[in-house]
Specification:
Helices cover 45% and strands 11% of the residues. It folds into 2 domains: 49 residues; 178 residues, Muramoyl-pentapeptide Carboxypeptidase, domain 2 (2-Layer Sandwich), CATH 3.30.1380. With 241 residues, the chain is an alpha+beta fold. It is globular. The strands form 3 sheets. A 4-stranded antiparallel beta sheet has the order 5-6-8-7. Strands 1-2 form a two-stranded antiparallel sheet. The protein has a two-stranded antiparallel sheet with strand order 3-4.
């Protein structure tokens, strides 16, 4: 009988020790996981802001011949917001003159049985920063820089740029794309990033991205169908420092 009690006692002690060890291990793992999560959070925060170099953001916009210039060499102030934004639809805002010109373009396209619509317009500095960082996380900064502007360096912040329809290369070659390429200058728009001008503009060909500049300059840049870029016309660079 005495031996049984000793066995029971030893069994209870053993179970107690095992329970304590399990609790210790669980608490230790939780503590380690919390540290790792905190470290990851801090790393994520650093990554999210790595593209945002405030020291290089301009204090005032760059104008040449009364045309606002925005590219990889000429950024906008962080707090730049056009004072005449209006809505094309529930999601897209542009400046009032851009809106009026686009309404004419869209109306004439509809008369020809074409469906041209605005998918993106004005973007704030912060929204562009989020978009750009998402692309960097997806493709890396070197590739992202070929198709997405860093915060402060996007024409969309001016409210003068519109991305049309699908905002991808499926738009290229469509009847809508051909109409835009050959006629947008008549409404004061230009194809801002023409084909085979990647080394000049710093961006891939974007048939869906149009920029309002007014009829006079637009016709000059149209150049009888052989589009001239801002960089060529104004003799400026488009390169990040």
């Amino acid at each position: 009988m005495k031996k049984k009690w000793i066995i029971y006692l030893l069994l209870i002690v053993a179970l107690t020790i095992i329970s304590i060890l399990i609790i210790f291990i669980v608490l230790k793992n939780n503590r380690d996981n919390n540290v790792n999560l905190d470290d990851t959070y801090m790393l994520d925060k650093k990554e999210d802001t790595s593209s945002e170099d405030v020291s290089k953001i301009s204090e005032s916009p760059k104008y040449i011949d009364n045309v606002i210039i925005v590219n990889k060499s000429y950024p906008l102030p962080r707090d730049f917001v056009p004072d005449n934004l209006v809505s094309i639809n529930e999601r897209v805002q542009v400046t009032s003159e851009t809106y009026e010109a686009f309404e004419l373009l869209q109306s004439d396209a509809i008369a020809l049985g074409l469906n041209i619509y605005a998918s993106s317009g004005y973007r704030s500095y912060d929204i562009q920063n989020d978009i750009y960082n998402n692309y960097v996380n997806l493709d890396g900064q070197e590739i992202a820089d070929t198709y997405s502007a860093r915060a402060g360096y996007s024409e969309h912040q001016t409210g003068l740029a519109i991305d049309l329809n699908t905002i991808d290369m499926s738009f290229d070659g469509t009847d809508e794309s051909e109409f835009v390429k050959n006629n947008c200058y008549k409404y004061g728009f230009v194809i801002r990033y023409p084909k085979a001008k990647e080394d000049i503009t710093g961006y891939m060909y974007e048939p869906w991205h149009i920029r309002y500049v007014g009829n006079v300059l637009a016709e000059k840049l149209y150049n009888n169908g052989d589009w001239i870029t801002f960089e060529e016309y104004f003799n400026i660079d488009s390169k990040y420092e």
